[in-house]
Write a structure and sequence with these properties.
- The chain is mostly beta strands and about 270 residues long.
- The strands form 4 sheets. Strands 1, 2, 5, 6, 10, 12, 15, 16, 18, 20 and 21 form an 11-stranded mixed β-sheet that branches. It has a 5-stranded antiparallel β-sheet with strand order 4-3-7-8-19, with no helix packed on it.
């Protein structure tokens, strides 16, 4: 009789509460990254125009429903609804266009079935590399200093260094000054080149390339390296930090970059 009562109460509980439903799949790892880039001027666009590329990535697991997702970037002159495509774990929005007078302030709106967020960003202006001078020659790899002018609205800078070994086959000296010119030959392909990347907030940086050039000690015929500098001006959260400038249901980062900044070459004796 006792067993019958227990079974009766179990069945009654099931009838009252219903069968347990499968839990709804939880969306995790939600984050949004966006980029607004003023790219290099080139012959493919009309004279006096600037090429602006806008990309936004909405990551999540499971991925958001593309049919319920919209990404819009607005400014004082226009509003762009980005064209969407789907990746393995993200929804990507992209827009491209040429502008005669690019705006400096942009607002991103993202709406989706997994949440919404928005934020603003300012497009930086150009800057100019001041030191070292073009084709300058440094006597040591441990005293390279790079200085550039401040970019309006920029919050940090991406510095890219491309290191290429050379050999001076016909040294030309004038008053003890070595002239670097057409006498410089590149090294065969079996000697590797190197890339270095720096993130800085200031407009001056001291770099020590000694460790980067240690691999060249195995090639005694190399007596110079050419270092090419490229600096991109960025606004938005500093890389590898806990900074965010997109908010809403979840967080995200939006960056804007001025990319067509003149490169600079200099040489280091080794």
């Amino acid at each position: 009789m006792r067993k019958f009562r227990i079974l009766y109460f179990i069945l009654l509980t099931i009838l009252i509460n219903g069968c347990e439903k499968s839990p709804t799949e939880v969306v995790v790892n939600k984050v949004c990254y966006g980029y607004i880039k003023l790219l290099c001027h080139h012959d493919a666009i009309p004279y006096g125009c600037s090429e602006i590329e806008k990309e936004v990535y909405l990551y999540s697991h499971p991925v958001a429903d593309i049919d319920e997702t919209e990404m819009v970037i607005t400014s004082s002159v226009r509003s762009d609804t980005l064209t969407l495509s789907q990746g393995i774990n993200y929804i990507k929005g992209r827009s491209w266009g040429c502008y005669t007078n690019p705006d400096t302030n942009y607002i991103l709106y993202v709406t989706s079935n997994i949440g919404n967020l928005s934020g603003t960003i300012n497009l930086p202006s150009s800057c100019e590399i001041l030191e070292p001078e073009d084709d300058d020659t440094l006597e040591s790899a441990d005293n390279a200093q790079i200085i550039w002018s401040k970019s309006n609205r920029a919050e940090w800078y991406l510095i890219k260094l491309y290191i290429e070994p050379f050999t001076l086959i016909e040294p030309l000296c004038i008053s003890d000054t070595i002239i670097i010119g057409p006498f410089l030959d590149t090294i065969p392909d079996f000697v590797p080149c190197k890339d270095s990347t720096l993130y800085v907030r200031d407009t001056i940086v001291d770099i020590d390339l000694t460790s980067s050039l240690e691999y060249l000690q195995n090639f005694p015929f190399i007596n110079f390296v050419k270092v090419t500098i490229n600096i991109d001006a960025y606004s938005g959260p500093f890389p590898h930090s806990e900074e965010y400038n997109l908010s809403g249901t979840f967080k995200g980062c939006l960056w804007a970059a001025y990319l067509p900044i003149t490169t600079r070459d200099f040489f280091i004796k080794i």
